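subagent[fold] <- orchestrator: predict structure for attached chain, return C-alpha cells only, no commentary.
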Amino acid sequence: MSRPPRFFLASPLGSRGEYVLDDNESRHAVQVLRLREGDAASVFDGRGAHAAGVVVKADGKRVRLRLEAPEREPAPTPRLGLAVAIPKGGRWQNLVEKATELGADRLIPILAERSVSRGEGDPARWRRWSIEAAKQCLRSRLPEISRPLPLAELLEREGGRGYPLFLADSGGEAPMRLRKRLIGAADLLFLVGPEGGFTSAEAESLRQAGAAAVRLSPFVLRIETAALAALAAAWSLQG
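subagent[fold] -> orchestrator:
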C-alpha cells in the first residue's frame, strides 16, 4: 500500500487542527499530485513534528489540511555537524540532499584556500533541496544550512565549544579508535576539505583546534563522497 503524499509545513506544527500549505506546496499538491478534498496527506514542519491528515480544501492557490495530533521525531544525540568545501556544479545539490538523508543536523559550507567554488548560489534554494530530500526519506527535522564561512571564521566560532571535531584525512586513524571522544558529547563536527586538500597552514590551524584526523577510505575521495562517508562514520562512532 502506497503512503500518502508528504508536504512541508512552513509554520510550526503544534496540535491537531487545520493547517494551510504555502503557495509552492499547494501548487504541487493540486497541479502535480491532483489532490482533492478527502484525500489523505501528511506533513512535517522541519522542526521534528509530523502528522497525518486529510485535505479539506484544495484549489489552485491554497490547500487546507485537517491534521491529527502530531508526533515528534526524537532529537539526535549527539547532533551531527558537517562542514564541507563546496564542490563544483550539481554535485553540491547531491551533497545537500544526501546529507539530509543521512541525518546531518548542521551543514556548513567551508571556504578554504584551495576551494574552487566560493559559495555562490541561493541558500533558499539549498534549503529547498533539503526539504525535498526530507520528504522522500521521511525525516521530520531539517538540517541548519549556514552561509559559507572561511575556515578561520569557522574554527573561531566552533573550536572553543568543547565538542569533538573530526577531520577527513587519508592519514588519520580508523573511526572506531576515536569513539571514546564522543562520550557525553552533545554535538560533533566533521570537516571535509576541498579536492586539493587543506594547505599546511590550514591543517595546522585544524590541529590546534583539536580536530582528530579520521581515515574514511584507503582511496582518494571526491568531496561529496568523503562528506557522505564522514556522516556514515559519525553514525558508526555512536554505535
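orchestrator: received. Logging for downstream: The first strand starts at residue 6 and ends at 8. Residues 223-238 form the longest helix (16 residues).
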